[in-house]
Specification:
By secondary structure, the protein is an alpha+beta fold. Helix content is about 40%, strand content about 10%. It has eight helices and five strands. Strands 1-3-2 form a three-stranded antiparallel beta sheet. It has a two-stranded parallel ribbon with strand order 4-5. α6 links the parallel β4 and β5. The longest helix has 15 residues. It is globular and about 60 Å long.
Length: about 150
């Protein structure tokens, strides 16, 4: 994670340059979406002497002490869930060993969406919606006495 933070600028001279950075680095590939979502993750620098007029709203480096606890055993907890599981990814290059084994054993459904960046739900919302609806339909369970969505 530190490598990721080291590769991103501390800020930008304009929101337009922040949008372009997200598109050029393939963090987002959908320029329409980037123009909507990227401005909200920046604020004008409170420091008038700052090298950048626009800085990140959330100072991610300050959260570094918590990263281990956030992600520790996340894969095993995901695999231990007693329900249908879906993992939607932009690529499989970062699957850990536990998830790779679980996927080969059929413990969860994995969908890889090509040609998207980190924010895959913004880059290809139609495909993500299709994956979610198909997963829901395949795993729908009828509970006696509970009406399904849309029933009167």
């Amino acid at each position: 994670m530190m490598g990721l933070l080291d590769s991103r600028p501390d800020g930008f001279p304009s929101v337009e340059e922040a949008i372009q950075w997200h598109i050029n680095t393939h963090t987002l590939r959908n320029s329409f979406s980037a123009r909507i979502s990227v401005p909200s993750i920046f604020v004008q620098s409170p420091d008038s002497n700052s090298a950048h007029e626009w800085v990140w709203r959330t100072p991610l480096r300050s959260t570094a002490p918590y990263w281990t606890s956030w992600f520790k055993s996340l894969s095993s907890k995901f695999l231990a869930c007693r329900t249908a599981r879906l993992l939607v990814l932009a690529g499989t290059d970062r699957l850990d060993k536990e998830l790779m084994i679980g996927q080969m054993q059929g413990k969860f459904q994995m969908e890889v969406v090509p040609d998207v960046g980190h924010m895959l739900h913004e880059d290809n919302p139609r495909k993500i919606a299709q994956v979610l609806v198909e997963f829901w339909r395949r795993n729908e369970r009828v509970v006696i006495g509970v009406k399904k969505v849309g029933e009167l």
